[in-house]
Amino acid sequence: MSVQVQFLPDDVTATAEVGEPLLDVAKRAGIDIPTGCLMGSCHACEVELDGQAICSCISAVPPGKDKITIDLYIDPTW
């Protein structure tokens, strides 16, 4: 099942498959999400998925939705 993934604040949209890693979707869309540990511990890759904070390095496109919104933000302390 295809899902439209919208990346904010730049309003870039990519088509992804359920279960596809979010970092792969972002890379394909030309979006750079900073990473650190790649295990979800350091939170360098933290984004908001439909308003909920998640670590994108350990997250995938969830099932059950036709469209999701990823809000990127920069942590000035990282």
Keyword list:
single chain, 78 residues, mainly beta, 5-stranded mixed β-sheet, globular
What this model shows, in words?
This protein is mainly beta and 78 residues long. It has a single domain, classed as Beta-grasp domain (Ubiquitin-like (UB roll)). The longest helix has 7 residues, at 22-28. It has one helix at residues 22-28, and strands at residues 2-8, 12-17, 46-49, 52-55, 67-71. A five-stranded mixed sheet has the order 2-1-5-3-4, covered by helices on one side.
How is this fold's topology laid out?
Elements: E1 2-8, E2 12-17, H1 22-28, E3 46-49, E4 52-55, E5 67-71
Parallel strand pairs: 1-5
Antiparallel strand pairs: 1-2, 3-4, 3-5
Give a brief outline of the structure.
The protein has one helix and five strands, in the order E-E-H-E-E-E.
In the CATH classification, which architecture applies?
Roll
Structural shape: globular
> The biggest beta sheet, please?
5 strands, mixed
Overall strand count = 5
Cα-to-Cα separation, first versus last residue: 35 Å
CATH topology: Ubiquitin-like (UB roll)
| Percent in helix | under 10%
Low-confidence stretches: none
Order of strands across the widest beta sheet? 2-1-5-3-4
User: Structural class of the secondary elements?
Assistant: mainly beta
- Classify the beta-strand content into a percent band: 25-35%
- The oligomerization state is single chain
Radius of gyration from CA coordinates: 12 Å
